Amino acid sequence: MASSKAWVVVDWRNLHGQFEEAGLTARLPDEDALCEVLAGYGMSLAGVSVGIGLAPAAGGVLKQMHDENLRIVRDVRARGWTVLEGLLRREDGEILEKMTDARCVLEAARLIYERPEHVESLVVLSRDADMVPAADLGLSKGFPVYLASASDKDPRNAPRLHLPVSVMRILAGKDPLADDCYTVTQTEFLLDPGPHEWVVEAAQTIHRLEGWRLRHENGSAGFLHATEGSAYNLGETLVLVTSDVHFGENDRPIAWCSSSVDTPERAWLVQARVVRRQDAGRVIIKVNGIEQGMRSAVGEAEPSQRLLVRLKRQGDHLGQQANVRLVGPLDVLPARSRNAGRLQVGRPLPVQIKSSGPRGSLAQGLDEDGELYDIATSNWAESLQNGRWYACTRRPVRARGDRRAPQVLDAISGALPL
Questions:
Q1: Pairing between strand 121-125 and 4-11?
Q2: Of 171, 190, 221, which residue sits at a domain end?
Q3: For the chain, which ranges sit under pLDDT 50?
Q4: What angle do CA 47, 145, 156 make, to 5 degrees?
Q5: Domain ranges, residue 31
Q6: What is the CATH number of the domain that holds 9?
Q7: What are the tens digits of pLDDT across the range 30-67?
Q8: Predicted TM-score of the model (pTM)
Q9: 12, 117, 276, 303: which has the fewest C-beta neighbours closer than 10 Å?
């Protein structure tokens, strides 16, 4: 299944309102969040345009809103995205936004007619019925355009992507996203104290300790405290042991290296196995026969997978606060385990329909890895067509109460451009 390259048009004020209704703090989604969300609908990110209103000469409450939006505009431009600027006005005591919807629709029309080589579909983040003409134009020109929102109402049967609460939480930055985790090879490397050969990359300060940033040929990062030696040249190769593991920016593990010839015991670096996923940000693991929680985004660690973890030490010189932290995987995570994790926390999964019946009956479909599901059409979704892909989310229980039976999913999108 090759993903469709989608351009996202954000109707900011409309999305802002949806965040508030979901009890979430409104924020402009970043690129990582948009990529994660689009993946659940079989798409990848091609570009972003943001429609937002400004009132440069205003005062009072209107000026406050202008200033807030202006900060967002600067953020949008800093990311290299497109600003679709509308107007903020105060009429009869109410603040209204003018021309922003029109700018969003015109942007959609531009993309539909120009059809940039790197754009294969269009997603409009808005539930406003004023955006329906963009979807209608897309249908007439054979270009996939979807209205994406948290609303379960279908305005005039426009092609839709329903955004469940789990997706809105990603857009709002509430749920953690899986980082580019270490590979099994890199984790096994950290499990072995060495000695290993490291290359000096640059001077670096960690926890107010001056030292040297190191790199191993397998891509692993390391650090050598300056008290262990000095006056190294950039590019110089050093033979060191890994005495510990520290966590740097984005929680990436860093090998804490030493020039000591003694091999450290490192009893706090242990193997563990994932028992179950607790929620979108935590799993339950078993360490030394005891179950405990550990922070882990969906796709980083899933049930039955073996991991290398670091336990908190008494008087920990690296300042670890959590009782246990993930270092990396010791087993390759199967795609079906990753998909099961996504479905468990309510995130969508693209599924291809293999057999469908009349509306109201269950269809059957397969995900990209051949896992079989029963699929129901949601109240507003179109009839499911054989051979087409749809984004689906999991129902709370399995079909017929039989755990061996296929899982029942709800289709939450129109046919996807796959």
A1: parallel
A2: 171
A3: 398-405
A4: 140
A5: 4-171
A6: 3.40.50.1010
A7: 999 999 999 999 999 999 999 999 888 777 778 888 88
A8: 0.84
A9: 117
